[in-house]
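Sequence decides. Consider this:

===
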Amino acid sequence: MKQIVVVGGGPAGLMAAGQAAQRGLSVTLLEGQPRPARKLLLTGKGRCNVTNAADLSGLIENVPRNPKFLYAAFSAFSAQDTMAFFEARGVPLKVERGNRVFPQSDRAADIADALIRFAKQAGVTFRQEKAAALCVSQGKISGVRLISGAILPADGVILATGGRSYPATGSTGDGYRMAREVGHTLTPQRPSLVPFEVREADCAELQGLSLRNVGLRIAEAGCEKPVWQAQGELLFTHFGLSGPLILRASADLSEIGQKDFVAAIDLKPALSPEQLDARLLREIASSPNRQYANLLASLLPAKLIPVFVARVGIPPDCRAHALTRAQRSETAGLLKQLSFHLTGYRPYAEAVVTRGGVAVGEVEPGTMRSKRVAGLSFAGELLDVDGYTGGFNLQIAFSTGYLAGNCIGNGEELS
């Protein structure tokens, strides 16, 4: 019987191991952590956004890099297949805003437990040991060397170690090193779906403030044309900016911290500067003796007003009727463009996923097999593919794991 070793007990590894074992292969899963799928327990703030109920084109559209590589994997195991997989294993699901799919229990542990049960019932042997390197003989996988120095013989290996995000859960980037050591090319890695750090100290005063339906434009300093823009929800933190808008931007932008980028927040995207001036005039007419800071209460959340007043440079006790046309224009301008200089990404420990990895040109998209080493396959975050928030990254893990597990041991690579 052919011996298959799966390195990594996350969602991709568990899916791959279970699929391979169901086909009658002898499968050993190596996981250094005491419990498999630890990182999965953190997803969706502990609720686990298990997939997105999108069709094939919807999945592809939400993968910003190398989406065509995933066409075969998504076709082989779709979001609907993922949903059916878990519901058949006693985990009822629900679809929320944006087609995001969660377990009805709102417990990520239910998803993790179902994956572990699937692999065990399929006959996978679990070993709590960490792989140190892949063993290759004459261009073909021959085994896995463990940290202890022991060699675990293998006819085939599925590398599914995850990326570098959430390193405390075991995602330390070892898989990148092992892939490189056997001849694979790696594209540069960095945190993705991660908050930004900013230069301005007053951002810390806004910590915890969430803004809905704001516009965000990111441009190089001194340039009018944005490199990224969208509208949605944003969150201030003690170090900078977070929230759905920022996480999405972090997946698209690759040079934050290398060049001087400015994030301009449009606090009133539905109103033009002229409309804002007209509204200010109405507010002034209704209460001409109000102080400037109180005048802003109808336009801004209370926590933002002191920072806004300090930025605009108008005395907070200035009476509304005393505001000049220029001061009204400055107020409207700042409402349309509250700016922060982006200095970098937050660390991997705060990133949802890793951008970059094993170059997909060296992997067969229809099988997940290596084009460089016979008997080696890849699955999950280790590959140079990543999606936006909304369940797309877990779907990548399930689809690539499914394909790798069903194709390992077929064809000439193990002959």
In short: The chain has twelve helices and 19 strands. The chain has a mean pLDDT of 95. Residues 9 and 36 are 5 Å apart (CA to CA). Residues 392-407 form the longest helix (16 residues).
